[in-house]
Design a protein that fits this description.
It is a single chain. By secondary structure, this protein is α/β, with parallel strands linked by helices. The protein contains 24 helices and 9 strands. The strands form 2 sheets. Strands 4, 5, 6, 7, 8 and 9 form a 6-stranded mixed beta sheet that branches. A 3-stranded antiparallel beta sheet has the order 1-3-2. Helix 20 packs antiparallel against helix 21. About 10% of the residues have low confidence.
Length: about 525
């Protein structure tokens, strides 16, 4: 955002223009925009809001004289620790050193003027996690997907959209196919059409050694009525696991698996598997044993983010299943949050850590923060439908139903990972119900039940749709099915939680509650 302001001095930039430039293709709220502007003002010492001014009804104006100097000159003059880095390429300065430097020089920057803002912004971008890995982000070339003559059009679309999606990830760079021999990795694939489905096979190869570091088959059922949906799911079917593999490579633990380094990955994996096996059907005693196992393992290897994620997820499961005493639940939530915050400091660009944090913030109704964290996960994997789903839930809580509907439908168009596919449809149906559109909700809820018939929640929301359509007998039958699958359900654990919810959601939820009660859901 600072680069955008500094390259457009004296021009009013609208909120929409700023948000589209900083968060392209990501649904975020205006709170993120305001927070960025607050941080920039703080860094520049703009307490009187004279550098970044609000233009009522129009947007923001960066009112300063801006000039640019070569990044190398500014970096060498700014701090000795930057000199060697600027002589050899991208800056390799530890983030902690940069933060100390910023704190010392913040007042000086504010009073000395804004002549080097653009160059400093470039340096800060060079210090992003992707550059800190090994001097530069890994480069990837996406080769044209091979296909027969009849399927070349679909293959071309798949190639273009896959490359465009990967190009959104800021921890890697996507290069042209013509320069593939200079790329670190090459992505190739084949596509063919059968009578019933599109079948694709993709792989990523390490250029230097020829080693295949990732491969995956993708199958998408042919639906002549919706070619665009088939295209989207083909690309996401390849893009989602590929982005996850790339993220794992980027965030690989550099410590050796020796007694002098970290404990073996296999040992941590065994502990996680033992601690979380059949956790859905476990008891309080088994839960306590599992928690103790993970806490012990994490104490022995505090930088192991996989253990941190597993422990935080287990504790949140304990809160949801009421395995903690009421007085312990808040402490468990706080502990899970602190574990994940530390994991994020260790691996700030790890999708599994961001995903776990996103889920925790959504589960604890910290929706403003969840929007930010989930958007970061989506920026590292543009096909990450679970992150989109949690963004949609936050948008529902804010009363932004149309935006939530768009997020859930986008998640459904990706359908990745497929194990969660019933949730996209459930949330689309739920959103339509909150909008008072029972007829639109009905087919989505039925599809959700067809995929996962044992959830119960979908049946209960289906009963509300039937009430809205004036079909009480079908509503009662659907509710009876839901209660049989989820005994003990009531309004409190079927509706979205109301903590931090907007008045718009509360009003819509009250109407949905009436329909659920009419269908037979207990109030308490």
């Amino acid at each position: 955002m600072l680069v955008l302001f500094a390259t457009n001095p004296g021009r009013v930039l609208s909120k929409r223009e700023l948000m589209d430039a900083v968060w392209p293709n990501v649904h975020v709220g205006e709170d993120n925009l305001f927070q960025c502007i607050r941080e920039i003002r703080s860094a520049l010492g703009d307490d009187r809001r004279e550098v970044i001014r609000v233009v009522s009804g129009s947007g923001y104006l960066f009112e300063a004289e801006v000039s640019a100097e070569p990044a190398t000159r500014v970096a060498q003059a700014a701090h000795p620790a930057l000199r060697s880095a600027t002589q050899t390429g991208p800056a390799l300065v530890p983030a902690s050193s940069w933060r100390r430097f910023v704190r010392r020089r913040r007042a000086a920057v504010a009073t000395a003027g804004l002549g080097c803002i653009l160059a400093l912004a470039i340096i800060m971008m060079m210090l992003a996690p992707g550059f800190l890995m090994a001097g530069r982000p890994p480069s990837i070339a996406v080769m044209p997907v091979a296909a027969g003559d009849e399927d070349k059009a679909m293959a071309a679309i798949m190639t273009t959209r896959l490359a465009d999606g990967l190009a959104q990830i800021d921890t890697i760079s996507v290069v042209a196919p013509q320069t593939s021999q200079q790329a670190d990795f090459i992505v190739t694939g084949e596509l063919r059409k059968t009578e019933r489905s599109w079948e694709a096979q993709a792989r990523m190869t390490r250029t230097a050694t020829g080693e295949i570091v990732w491969t995956a088959p993708v199958s998408v059922v042919i639906d002549e009525a919706d070619l665009a949906l088939q295209q989207s799911r083909l690309v996401a079917g390849v893009g989602y696991p590929l982005a996850m593999r790339i993220n794992a490579l980027v965030n690989a633990d550099p410590r050796p698996a020796t007694p002098e380094g970290r404990p073996s990955a296999g040992g941590a994996k065994v502990v996680i598997e033992q601690a979380t096996a059949s956790i859905i059907h476990t008891s309080r005693e088994r839960f306590a044993t599992s928690q103790a196992m993970l806490e012990k393992a994490l104490a022995e290897d505090p930088d192991n983010v996989d253990l941190a994620i597993a422990l935080a997820a287990l504790q949140m499961r304990g809160v949801q299943m009421i395995w903690y005493d009421p007085t312990e639940s808040a402490a468990a939530e706080a502990h899970a949050g602190s574990i994940l915050k530390r994991a994020l400091r260790i691996k700030p660009t790890s999708i599994p850590v961001l995903d776990a944090s996103c889920r925790l913030l959504s589960a604890t109704n910290e929706f403003t923060e969840s929007l930010v964290v989930c958007a970061r996960a989506l920026a590292l994997n543009p096909w990450h439908a679970p992150a989109l789903t949690h963004i949609g839930i936050a948008q529902l809580q804010a009363g932004r139903f149309e935006e939530a509907l768009s997020s859930f439908k986008r998640a459904d168009s990706y359908d990745t990972p497929q194990v969660s596919r019933w949730t996209w449809k459930l949330n689309v149906g739920r959103t339509y119900l909150l909008m008072g559109r029972s007829e639109d909700a009905l087919p989505w809820l039925k599809k959700s039940i067809a995929i996962t018939p044992a959830t119960g929640r979908s049946h209960m929301l289906l009963s509300a749709a039937y009430i809205g359509l004036g079909r009480p007998a079908e509503a009662r039958a659907a509710m009876d099915q839901g209660m049989a699958l989820r005994p003990g359900s009531n309004l409190g654990n079927v509706l979205l939680p109301i903590k931090n919810a907007s008045p718009v959601l509360l009003a819509a939820a009250a109407l949905l509650a009436k329909a659920l009660l009419a269908a037979g859901l207990p109030e308490y």
